[in-house]
Amino acid sequence: MARVAFIGLGVMGAPIARHLAAAGHNVAVYNRTADKAAAWVAKHGGRAAATPAEAARDQDAVFTCVGNDDDLAAVTLGEEGAFAAMREGAVFVDHTTVSADIARKLAAAADRRGLQAVDAPVSGGQAGAENGKLSIMCGGSAEAMALAEPLMRTYAARIVHIGGPGAGQTTKMVNQIAIAGILQGVSEALRFAQASKLDLDKVLEAISGGAAQSWQMVNRWPTMAKDEFDFGFAIDWMRKDLGLALDEAGRNGALLPMTALVDQFYAEVQKMGGARQDTSALVRRLPK
User: Fold this and answer.
1) If you ran DSSP here, which 8-state letter would residue 271 be given?
2) Do 104 and 77 touch, CB atoms closer than 8 A?
3) For residue 248, what are the domain limits?
4) Which listed residue, of 151, 171, 265, 267, carries a Cα 20 to 30 Å from 238's Cα?
C-alpha cells in the first residue's frame, strides 16, 4: 500500500483515482469543486482535502489530472500548491495533457525540492480510464519511473518510458497529430461513400480489414454515419492539444501543414455548435 494524493477528479481523474483506491492504496483527493471530491470519497473511501498542499502532505506519490498549463501550475507551484508540502523523495506524476515547457519546468522544480517527477499524458479516453486500460507515455528519469510505474500499473494497459522530462508530453502531441490526420481521412472517405450511394456497413466491413483500418475508423465510422457525436473527446480539448503541438513545432522546426489545416477545420465545427462534441464531428463540415 502507498499513500497517494490525486488532484483533479474530472472524467479521467476520477476513474484513475478509483483504480488506485481499489488496489488498496490510501488515497487523498482534491478537486477545485469540493462537492465532487466529497462525492468521490463517499463512494470510494479515502479522504477529501481542502487544498492541493493538504492532499499532498506526507504522501508517497502525488498525481494530477487537471485542465491546462495554468491549472497545473496553480495546483503544484501556486499558493497552497502540492510541491511545497511534498516530502523529500516522493514522486509527482502528471496525467494532464499540457505543454512540454511546463513539464520541463515542473521537473526542474521537483529536482530542486528533492522530488521525482514524471510527465505522463494518457491515451484511451474516458473508456480507457474507466476500464483501467490506458496507454501512458512518460517523460522523466529512470528513478522517477521506478517509483511511478507500479502505481500506474493499476489503471494502464501500456506504459512506455520515452525519455527525459517533457518527452511524455511531446509524444502525446505525436498521438494527437496522427489522430487529426486520420479523422480527416475517415471523414472524407465516409462522405465519398455516401455520395457514391454505397452501403456504409458493408464498406466498413470491406476496408476495416485491410491497410486502411484504424481505431478511429472501427470505433467512429458507425456513429459518424448516423450523425451521433454527443460523447467522447471534445473538440475544445482537441484544439487545445493541437495548439500545443503547433506551438512546439514552432520551437523545434517541424512542419505540420495538415495539423494546422485540421485545427482550422475544427474551428469551423466549433462555430457550428460542436465545441463539446466528439472529435469525429469533424465530418460535419463536409456536406452530404
Assistant:
1) I
2) no
3) 170-285
4) 151
In terms of Cα–Cα distance, which of 168, 185, 181 is closest to 93? Answer: 168
Which is nearest to 288 in space by CA: 201, 206, 196, 221? 196
* Catalytic residue set: 172
pLDDT tens per residue, range 41-78: 999 999 999 999 999 999 999 999 999 999 999 999 99
- pLDDT tens across 116-160, in order? 999 999 999 999 999 999 999 999 999 999 999 999 999 999 999
33 and 143 housed in the same domain:
yes
Does one domain contain both 281 and 198? yes
Q: Are residues 138 and 211 in the same domain?
A: no
Please report where in the chains the cell 490506458 appears, as a residue: 134
Per-residue cell: 259: 495539423
Number of domains in the chain: 2
Q: Mean pLDDT over all residues of the chain?
A: 98
Distance CA 96, CA 169 (A): 9
Question: Rounded CA gap, 288 and 286, in Å?
Answer: 7
Q: Which of 268, 280, 188, 272 is nearest to 234 (CA)?
A: 280
Q: In this predicted structure, what is the pLDDT of residue 195?
A: 98
Instruction: Report the distance separating Cα 243 and Cα 263, nearest Å.
Output: 8
Question: Of 139, 164, 189, which residue sits at a domain end?
Answer: 164
Same domain, 48 and 12: yes
> Hey, what's the cell of 60?
508517497
DSSP letter for 288, please.
Answer: -
Are 17 and 40 in contact, with CB atoms under 8 Å apart?
Answer: yes
Does residue 32 share a domain with residue 134? yes
3-state SS, residue 191 = helix
